[in-house]
What does this fold into?
Amino acid sequence: MRVVTLSIGDELLDGRGVDTHGAWFSLELVRHGCDHVEHRVVADEVDTIRDAMSALLSRGDLLVMTGGLGPTPDDLTRDALASILEVELEEDSEARGPLESRLSKSGRPLGPGNLRQIMRPKGTSFLANENGTAPGIIARVSGASVVLLPGPPREMCAMFDRHVVPLLEGDPRERATIRSFGLSESEAGERLGDLARRDSEPVVCFKVSDSVVQADVLGAGAAGVARRIEELWSPYAFGDELDTLPGVVGALLHERSFDVAVSESCTGGLLGGALTGVSGSSDFFRGGFLTYSNALKSSLLGVPDALFETVGAVSREVALLMALETARRLGTTYALSTTGIAGPSGGTEDKPVGTVWIGLCDTSGPQPVVVARRFCFSGDREQVRDRTVKASLQMLRHRMLDIEVPLLWEIGS
It folds into this structure.
């Protein structure tokens, strides 16, 4: 089945918002064995929406649209559908009662804007929306089905499952995903060899997002190929599409009854935030120190002032001491430390922007073991800090698994 999709909203074209619906539609449609032929984004203009609908309908058996069904004057999707059908809008009498009841529960009256939400083109039908005030609409146009869904993801996704999935005609494709960190995209592809050929079945598609290299496997035998990819990407592969590095690290800590603390400079709390973002993190995360200034590195962690004058705050020695003292003072199995130059200023010839030292203290054995590794991360300030967090977590994961391999962006000490 050939499916086309359309996202509607000025905010998706003027920088105020990001259209995430296209990617979500693709994943769902491929999963259900459909061909996602095209996705477009258009502004809140009746003529523009109508023209996009006409063009897309010539390319697919089903058109799914999202956005423009709200109560404000710029919500014009129903008007565009009426225009292409050459009919007027009419109030759906059966929809008025449920809407009034829903609004009354939150103490809101049925205003003129809400009344627009129960207007639909003559000859079309409403689709129930359990999570919002805007019903969806379904129609037939030129032999194809058209489904209008509201824009908020919480409403749209639930309505897609309830109303669109039954319309899809296709054989669901097996799908599996493997995610990795610390491996470049080029090396990840090279490790797969013939598995990455575009004419193979199942097909392997690559995606890089926030420094995580991901392989999506689509087609018969996807699970088996995914297991093979995990082996080929070892030890950088850390899980499937539902896994995150903080979640995987947290699960390992919990499973082994270990705990961790952090001391952060350049990451400014992002590392602790990543770990506490995991449900149940109180089982394994004890806290830490946010020592952004040299003075706090000294007063909270005992780093000698002389080190700042000789080797500097961004150094192996400071990273080692930060990790060691964090573990000692908080009594944890592991401690991670970060100190670096995130930019855009502050770099030197010897320590360019992106230089980061990550320290790791392991007290699980008879004697504490402390290591520090140097990285030169590419990217802007946000990317440097994010990559520092992920590299720290991958280092800890590898330490718990007794693995020692270099990570992407790591340089010799």
Remarks:
- The CA atoms of residues 265 and 292 lie 4 Å apart.
- The chain has a mean pLDDT of 93.
